[in-house]
Amino acid sequence: MNQVWFQPALRPESGTALSPRERAIRVPGGQGCVFAVSAGDALRITDPEGLQGGLLYALAGTFAPVEPGEAPDLAALLDGIGGGAAARTALAAGGIGPSDLAGLVILDGETTAGAAWEGIAARDSLCLLAAPGAAMAPEAQNPPTELHLAIRPKASIVGQAPPPLAPPLQDLRVAAATARAYTVKAGQYIQIIDVDGRQCADFLAFDAAELAQGREFGLDATTTHTLMGTSSPKPGLHAKYFDARMVPLVEVVQDTVGRHDTFMLACSAKYYEDMGYPGHSNCTDNFNAVLAPHGIDARKGWPAINFFYNTIPGTNDRIDMDEPWSRPGDYVLLRALTDLVCATSSCADDIDPANGWCPTDIHVRVYDAACAFPHGMSHRMTPDSEPRLTRETGFHPRTAALTRKIEDYRGFWLPSSFSSAGPIEEYWACRERAVVLDLSALRKFEVIGPDAEALMQRALTRDVRKLAVGQIVYAAMCYEHGGMIDDGTLFRLGPNNFRWICGDVYCGLWLRQLAERNGLKAWVKDSTDQLHNLSVQGPRSRDIFAPLLVTPPHQPSLSELKWFRFTVGRLAGVPVVVSRTGYTGELGYEVWCHPSQAIAVWDAIMEAGAPHGLTPAGLAALDMLRIEAGLVFADYEFCDQTDPFEAGIGFAVAAAKADPYIGKEALDRRRAAPHRRLVGLDIAGNEAVGHGDPVYAGRAQVGVVTSAVKSPILRKTIALARLDIAAAERGGPVEIGKLDGHQKRLAATIVPFPHYDPEKTRVRAEAAALASPPPASASDTVATAGIPA
Question: What is the pLDDT of residues 208-266, one digit of tens each?
């Protein structure tokens, strides 16, 4: 069960809260969730995307008119939905069987986006909310999507901790402006919860065995910074906090906030005395009091790990701070790596924004080592969205067996490189043979309905009306001012059927809002969790796929599949969609399947690719490949402050498109009077260059490096850079500023991009196989992807 509490966002026009504090539960499509209500609790169940059915089960009389027979039999339903076994266990723990609950169809599956059901509980009850739906076939567009449940309790829940993640071994309340000490065994989990939000929780941990011998070894932030290479460890490969011996004491398993402090001391008496508040309660004195029974010497200031404390490296060599990012119920989950003596405080600071000006309680729970909680960071689509932890792709069991170098990429665990090769070898495998990459983190949205074409025509910079069924087009999605929301590829599956594949989950919400504003009858359904994809790239990719893919007579075969086209078929008996697309500058394909069948697809491709030297590749190699090919990346080459022309993808803006679209007027102005241009740079020497490095012409900064790489095939450092139009003349000399931008300069020359295969001969190749990679080229040809502008 994914249950959180949240404080709803404020209405921008009034500055007042949407509602009192609520308990929020997200029920993923195709799954169910058990929850409890009390008499008088108000429920609101929302279908944010539309066309999703909803079933609510409760004790008879809880919600009128809940009567037996109005919904499918619950016992049968639990056999067919995700989480059914867990739901049975949760109900049994409350002494309830499936036959004890009556069902109600609250959403019939024919609803518009945002449709909601509301009810008030007439009695206490355990309930089950289901978002039924079968797995989506890759060529279909009917993904089961999530329902949102908000429970507004009759009684205030201020100060109440959220439901535990598992039965806790210890359940401790740390009252505002106090501290508590507790012991934890190796392997056990420590959950530190911000009950009401915006409250700092300082944390100390000591090796219990060493304390028993009179030696004090506790968490050391400086050692941790050095070993982990981060300001604060996050779930993943670099997730541990160390002591001064370089011995890890705790590992971060889950984090729903992501912003903490590891530089400042816990607040002390001196801080308040200097501010004019002598005698003020403080975390250091509170720690000294609770740790004394454990033989730990008092200190004037404790160098704690300050969870939820929002410190910011600011200008003028300052460390600034503001209110915490944490919301009610946010938490950090740690795993003890040895027996520990721990202490947690609820910070006493009420004289500045550190705790939102009002200290509140912290809650600590300790769980058994057998719980085996998944690792993950919290991701939110918008600031008021519920958190969703990093998840695994359908291919994760295979990739995780081949590497420990796995990173959180846009909310999914993806490999950065593999243990058997490494980024350079993986790079060359793509240029010379073939690689397979897990790119399931791409967001997929099914756009359907009679006005689907009209919606995408208004949303994208390309002329969608020219797109044929079976064709794909690369396009940009912009705001009214011309700044980019995202780039992506649009698949046309039918006359009124599209699939938008992009990087930002916000695109779905934006499209739904656009449809509502324009009165368009179109639905935008998130199918990201129903479609996972492998990218097979390289000159031998066609040879690998050819014997695998079977297509029906009315669909193109692999040999007939042109660039920026897709086909439907079966691979190793698994239904798939295969597109001739990629992100490497090489001939390549992407195969899309349901995650439940991902292992079969991976195994078949790897077996077929073995004679061709097929190699798994990670994100590090992919970054080298895409920079050489001049392919843009969000928050590097583009953002909401850059337009497609400045991002180097002006070809994706249809100059002759007559229909209005979002950002058209701004883009017409920007096309006529460009201010900045994306260019290629050849950099002298072998010094490292990276994203954000300033570019100078003399003393003046004229631009910034967006991406850079030491190119293996070109044997030099190359970069993409966004320069002022006056300084972007081809062949012109510029300098990359290092240190403060002036003390160290690296000579560079403006060149065309892409640096590699500018004529796109590799991706367009129709031969059965490609020879070795082409030599470096200086051509400035930029091929349009997909249909003509």
Answer: 999 999 999 999 999 999 999 999 999 999 999 999 999 999 999 999 999 999 999 99
Return the H-helix or E-strand segment holding 507: helix 506-517
Whole-number Cα distances in Å, 77 to 30, 50, 74, 145, 529: 11, 21, 5, 17, 21
Q: Contact at 8 Å (CB) between 653 and 695?
A: no
- Give the separation between CA 482 and CA 499, rounded to whole angstroms: 23
Residue from 532, 533, 525 nearest 445 by CA:
525
- Looking up tokens 């490096």, which residue turns up? 705
Whether 156 and 166 have beta carbons less than 8 Å apart is answered as: no
What is the spatial distance between Cα 538 and Cα 364, in angstroms, rounded to a whole number? 51
| pTM of full prediction above 0.90 | yes
pLDDT interval class at 770 (50, 70, 90)? low
Residue 348's Cβ-side half-sphere holds a number of Cα atoms within 13 Å equal to 19
What is the DSSP pairing of strand 147-152 with strand 42-47? antiparallel
**In whole angstroms, what is the distance from residue 622 CA to residue 624 CA?**
5
The full DSSP string for 514-534 is: HHHHTT---EEEE-TTT-EEE
Tell whether omega for the bond before 65 is within 30 degrees of 0, i.e. cis: yes
Can you tell me the distance from the alpha carbon of 394 to that of 440, in angstroms, rounded to the nearest whole number? 8
Average pLDDT, the chain: 92
Give the DSSP per-residue string, 552-592: -TTS--GGGPPTTBEEEEEETTEEEEEES--SSSSSEEEEE
pLDDT of residue 384: 80
Q: What token pair was written down for 661?
A: 């679209």
Query: Could you give the CA distance from residue 187 to residue 368 in angstroms, rounded to a whole number?
Result: 8
CB atoms within 10 A of CB 93: 11
- The answer to whether residues 705 and 695 touch, using CB atoms and an 8 Å cutoff, is yes
The answer for residues whose C-beta is within 8 angstroms of residue 39's C-beta and 6 or more apart is 121, 122, 123, 124, 154
Strand 744-751 with 676-683, pairing: antiparallel
Q: How far apart are CA 263 and CA 395, in angstroms?
A: 38
| C-beta of residue 734 within 8 angstroms of C-beta of residue 723 | yes
